[in-house]
Write a structure and sequence with these properties.
There is one protein chain. The chain is of the alpha/beta class. It has ten helices and nine strands. The chain has helices at 7-10, 23-26, 29-32, 35-40, 42-57, 63-70, 88-91, 149-158, 178-184, 211-225; strands at residues 2-4, 80-82, 97-99, 102-109, 115-116, 134-138, 162-166, 188-192, 205-207. The strands form two sheets. The protein has a six-stranded parallel β-sheet, covered by helices on one side. A three-stranded antiparallel β-sheet has the order 5-4-6, with helices on one face. Strand 7, helix 9 and strand 8 form a beta-alpha-beta unit. The chain is elongated. The model has no long low-confidence stretch (mean pLDDT 95). It binds adenosine-5-diphosphoribose. Adenosine-5-diphosphoribose binds next to helix 1.
């Protein structure tokens, strides 16, 4: 089981949220990442997501994403769960993953629930064919996760015996509860983070290394152990 956060994408150029250059040091989440903020000022919210989309459209996955994408081939069962909305795991070839916080490249209608992948809009907020307002299909603070996403992540966690926590500060719930569930079921927990986090005290191994640097080495070790 691998659970990733913004740190796994930072070597690709995606800003994290709470690190030194974190987005939440520059922008106020309550003004940009809540439904109330969208109701209050949909243009400012959309401009911010368009700005993040432009960054994400220019970047590529890094060695960390590619290593994780190869891992399923070496385990009887494997689950990738991410809090990231950047789509880089998919771009690296991970097609079976749980996107707990949605996907920034998708738009969802708040009336009919329909979605599309349009990037250019004639107006803000853009409108769905049904006339409803479109919003970025990401989970905002105070909102529920996509239907069944967390249940799937939790189910996989209760059945895992090796749990990697990669590039997350372990602050945001319910994703932050997964390593504790893994701990409860006796899984071996490996944390990869350039600094100590809320999770470090329950990890069996903590690697204070960039994920893009250590994940290829870990994959190499796994291949070796599997006789490849
Ligand atoms: N390799 C490993 N870890 C890294 C790297 C790297 N190259 N770069 C940064 N990190 C670590 C930071 O030390 C930090 O602990 O990644 C973590 C990123 O933490 P956050 O910025 O808090 O991101 P995340 O945990 O994914 O945030 C969770 O919060 O804002 C919401 O919805 C948003 O999904 C996000 C959620």
């Amino acid at each position: 089981m691998v659970s990733t956060g913004a740190g796994v994408s930072s070597e690709s150029g995606v800003p994290t949220f709470r690190g030194a250059d974190g987005l939440w040091n520059k922008f106020r989440p309550e003004e940009l990442a809540t439904f109330e903020a969208f109701e209050r000022n949909p243009r400012i919210v959309w401009e911010w997501y368009q700005y993040r989309r432009e960054i994400i459209n220019r970047i590529k996955p890094n060695a960390g994403h590619y290593s994780i994408a190869q891992m399923p081939g070496y385990f009887e069962s494997f689950t990738l769960v991410t809090q990231n909305v950047d789509g880089l795991h998919r771009a690296a070839g991970s097609d079976d993953l749980v996107e707990l916080h949605g996907n920034i490249k998708r738009n969802r209608c708040i009336e009919c629930g329909g979605f599309n992948y349009d990037e250019e809009f004639a107006q803000f907020p853009p409108l769905c064919a049904c006339g409803g307002r479109l919003r970025p299909d990401v989970v905002w603070f105070g909102e529920l996760l996509p239907k069944g996403a967390f249940e799937k992540a939790e189910m996989a966690t209760t059945g895992c015996d090796l749990f990697f926590s990669v590039g997350t500060s372990g602050i945001v719930q319910p994703a932050a509860s997964l390593p504790f569930t893994a701990r409860r079921v006796g899984a071996f927990i490996v944390e990869i983070n350039i600094e100590q986090t809320e999770l470090t005290h329950i990890a069996d191994e903590h690697f204070t290394v960039k994920s893009g640097e250590i994940l290829p080495a870990i994959l190499g070790k796994i291949k070796e152990l599997r006789g490849n």
